[in-house]
Amino acid sequence: MAMKSKSGISKIMMALAIILIITGAVAAYYALTPKTQTITLNGAGATFPEPLIKKWASEYNKINHSIVIDYQGIGSGGGIQQIKEKIVDFAGTDAPVKDEDMTTGYLVHIPETLGAVVVAYNIPGYTETLKLDGDTIAKIFLGNITKWNDPEIVALNPGLIDINQDILVAHRSDGSGTTYIFTDYLSRINEEWAKRVGKGKSVNWPVGVGAQGNPGVAGIVKNYHYSIGYMEITYAMLNNITYAWIKNEFSGEFIEPTLESISKAAKGFLNQMKNDVRLSIVNSPEPDSYPITSFTYILLYKEMNVYGEKMDMGKAKALLDFMWWIVHDGQDYSEGLYYAKLPQEVIEICEELLRSITYNGQHIITS
Predict the structure, then answer these.
(1) Phi and psi at residue 249, in whole multiples of 5°?
(2) Per the domain annotation, does 338 fall within a domain?
(3) Are residues 203 and 352 in the same domain?
(4) N or C end of the chain, less CB within 10 A?
């Protein structure tokens, strides 16, 4: 076997030395370069906006890989409780929190979207669109109307005259912002409802069967004939459940819940929102608006330092950056899931609210 020349060996040794130098340099670079830290933002609360929040979380992670958002739909009541206990970084609610109930720090309400609560139903063989007014809906959920061919229902829907079937009423069993919106509407429409039941995230239901979350009510209505229940419209759409057109008390017209009719409900309240975003827009006087419409909110502590070691400035900034994206670019995903975009006037209010949030007294968003 031929021996390699001294010059050949030298070249090999030099090449190996260069490789070792490069390898060492690369190793040193990665050792000194800090790894990108993953930040997880945890939220919980309303099921009303849950499909949209989860869509936002997925899309935001695609453009910010280091930010992971986890949101659990446990109902508005559960979300409010968890943010009060500082278990979550943000909460979703459809029912605003009053000042006197903010016992662990001031909670800023950020309007995130507009949605509708629909009255969904399952009547086999009935192909017409069910039309209801607020008074009739209240009487059904009070138990005063128990048959689908009750004269008051037939007066609005003549095609139901031969449907001599008991009405199965479905409602929420958990503390729910959807319930708050629905019972707020009924309290404004029907005096007996206002006196006997009232409005709230949880109420004492006169009749019916309860289910957990919007998905639970949707499941009952979808699977049981001659049933009726209330739910956020996205759940009716996703489950292919039919829903009623509701009478606008100011125009006398039966209004289909559409993106346009949902948006119109907010039109008459924009000036009031400059003082406080926590307001009800159900039974809006706008003549073409769908009557059971509401803003839904993200709850954030005004002073992020209340979390202590669980929240540093970096995480607080990541949280507010996500919220800023929600009320701007995130609105482009609303209509695909049948939520209405925030009006520009409301986006500007959201910007000021987000700028007001601090960490240890220092403003987090400064632009």
Answers:
(1) -65, -20
(2) yes
(3) no
(4) N
